[in-house]
Amino acid sequence: MSDTMTPREIESELDRYIIGQSAAKRSVAIALRNRWRRRQVAGPMREEITPKNILMIGPTGVGKTEIARRLARLVHAPFVKVEATKYTEVGYVGRDVESIVRDLVDTAIKIVREEHLARVRMRAEEAAEDRLLDILIPHPVKPSGPVSADAGKTGSDSRAKMRRKLRSGEMDERQVEIEVRGNAPMPMVQVMGNQGSDSMDIRDMLDGLMNSQSKRRRMSIRDALAYLQQEEADRLLDMDRIREEAVDRAENDGIVFLDEMDKVTHLDGKNADVSREGVQRDLLPLVEGTTVNTRNGQVNTDHILFIASGAFHLAKPSDLIPELQGRFPIRVSLDALGEEEFRRILTEPENALSKQYVALMATEGMQVEFTEDGIGEIARLAVTLNEQTENIGARRLHTMLERVLEEASFDAPDRQDKHLTIDAGYVRDRLTSLVQDEDLSRYIL
């Protein structure tokens, strides 16, 4: 269903988690729908249709990253988020911009592997039960004489009875000894070549050797069953097929989020910083379309969707090198958040912060209720703090709610009164002094 969602349906799904920013949602919804449209195009024309990459412009904390991340989750697409500035750090060695594509493929492998695991899980569970039953009910030595039918039936009944006990959890705590592969943790060591594709993980090289060794270990039946299920699932998986499918998924469905793009421009618009411009020129082939060598095969970046973002307070999109500008034809501005948006963020999304804290405190048996005026006061003070100090957008709400609920959260296990109403007065009692003392608010919030 997610593969064929219309732009309107995609936008509606994003609305469940992100407040406002309609222009950005529409742009990513169209980009996603264009992928489906491209797959419907026949012949050589399909390969000529490339994604229209997006540049999101807006202050921090307004939802740029969340829109891209939720979009990827919506369609189970491989997704990586990188900060462009990490490639300008002094002394930064061992990775290059092509590592973005390698990380994307690794993410795709995890997604595809989980999908394949789901298909073989039932078979793996049955095989694991059979192996455990062989340990719990050893096969008797075959007698030299004839065996009666009743003896065979008794053994079958005993096995069926034991299987029912396994599945009911009745034997979970019983100890059993099984053979496990010798895969004790090893330190991570890397051998780096001149090219990123030459990077090798010693752990990968020795994986086969380690797994070929085995030893007997005693553990509970619950843990033994989980271990054997994983082992059987690994045997049923075709990793070559998974890697091949993952590379295809990364090439055609992958989404790369390039954050802080404004910080790799020459900030004053006049004096170019060589290292920053160098990062842009390194990114250019990936965005234009190139082939990257990975340990899972060659990956073509022609059809990967790149979403770049930045505040662009000091710099402008036109400060990017011209070639890179042309590769981000879709530009959308995201609005700064005001009191009304904060109010909605606190209550409307499915994962709204107020709902999260209600659920957290409920684990201690506490019933927390946010009143309408309490939510409004948090929103009002968030705007004030963002104006007085650094404007960090909706991230301000995290620090404020932690402060509001700090006392109740600390006392919750021992508290006699298990009902807490957070109204405007309660919020003011815990936040007003911080808002009035600018130095203190900078330190804490």
- Beta strand %: 5-15%
CATH-defined architecture of the largest domain: 3-Layer(aba) Sandwich
CATH class of the largest domain: Alpha Beta
Number of structural domains? 3
Assign a percent range to the helix content.
40-55%
Distance between the termini: 43 Å
Separate helix tally = 18
In short:
The chain is an alpha/beta fold. It has 18 helices and 13 strands. The chain has helices at residues 7-15, 22-40, 45-48, 64-74, 99-136, 149-168, 202-212, 221-236, 239-253, 274-288, 322-326, 339-347, 353-362, 372-388, 395-404, 406-411, 424-436, 438-444, and strands at 54-57, 79-83, 175-181, 190-191, 200-201, 214-220, 255-259, 291-294, 297-300, 305-310, 330-333, 367-370, 419-422.
3D architecture notes:
By secondary structure, this protein is α/β, with parallel strands linked by helices. The chain folds into 3 domains: 2-106 and 246-333, Rossmann fold; 115-140 and 153-245, no CATH class; 339-436, Helicase, Ruva Protein, domain 3 (Orthogonal Bundle), CATH 1.10.8.60. The protein contains 18 helices and 13 strands. The protein has helices spanning 7-15, 22-40, 45-48, 64-74, 99-136, 149-168, 202-212, 221-236, 239-253, 274-288, 322-326, 339-347, 353-362, 372-388, 395-404, 406-411, 424-436, 438-444; strands at 54-57, 79-83, 175-181, 190-191, 200-201, 214-220, 255-259, 291-294, 297-300, 305-310, 330-333, 367-370, 419-422.
What characteristics describe this protein?
two-stranded antiparallel sheet, 445 residues, Helicase, Ruva Protein, domain 3, single chain, alpha/beta, 3 domains, flat, Rossmann fold
